[in-house]
Amino acid sequence: MSEQQPNPYASGPGGQGGPSYGAGQGDYRWGPGEPSYGYPQPYPAAYPAAPAYQPTLGAGLPAPGGYPAAPMGGAGLILGDITVAGDQIITPSGTMPLRGAIWNASDFSRTEEKMPAHAIVLAIVFFLFCLLGLLFLLMKEKTTTGYIQVTVTSGGRHHSTMIPAVDQGTFHWVMSQVNHARSLSV
To answer: What letter does residue 25 receive in the DSSP assignment?
Structure first.
């Protein structure tokens, strides 16, 4: 039979035995006997007072400070709300190191080609006068809608931004900027 560890929840002598619930037999201790990880601990004598209050986000992460000033050369690259300045990436969710950053871009845009309403009207009007009105039906109008999503991950942080697609060349422009950022991240 294996040797058992003493029960830290017991109030018997030396931590042995079962809990004592009767009056006058000692008080019941809940939890570990010594402070351990996750439990409040007294500050050592080296600290005369508790440290100043530090605001945190969820999961105990420290709150990011203000944006640091850009280097004298200015911003090197801007993609939506992501700015590459010097050796760091500045986002609304905080700063990240540029070295080792992982960049990704996804195209969520759509280009549609349709016949405009004025082409149909002109085709009907000119068809009555001459047969050349049917040439107006060859008029096409291209419209691009949607966005391009750019994500960056570095230093344990992740940020994503959406760039609106204004024409068919928007994704190519964004990819050239992302490739430039990837070359700076090496």
So the answer is: S
Residue whose C-alpha is closest to residue 79's, from 68, 93, 91, 96: 91
CB 45 within 8 A of CB 140: no
pLDDT of 139 over the 80 cut: yes
Q: Give the burial class of 155: count Cβ atoms within 10 A of its Cβ; 0-12 exposed, 13-18 middle, 19 or more buried.
A: middle
Per-residue DSSP letter, 56: B
Token look-up 């400070």 returns 65
Q: What are the Cα distances from residue 120, in Å, to 80, 111, 129, 141, 164?
A: 39, 21, 15, 12, 30
Tell me how far apart the alpha carbons of residues 139 and 126 are, in angstroms, rounded to a whole number: 14
First to last CA, the chain: 58
The string of pLDDT tens digits covering residues 101-138 is 999 999 999 999 999 898 888 888 888 777 778 888 88
d(CA 81, CA 91) in angstroms, rounded, equals 6
Total-model pTM: 0.53
Q: Would you state the torsion angle of the CA atoms of residues 172, 164, 92, 84, taken in this order, to the nearest 10 degrees?
A: 20
Question: Is residue 97 a contact partner of residue 88, using CB atoms and an 8 Å limit?
Answer: yes
Type of residue at 125: V
- Residues with Cβ < 8 Å from 52, sequence gap 6 or more? none
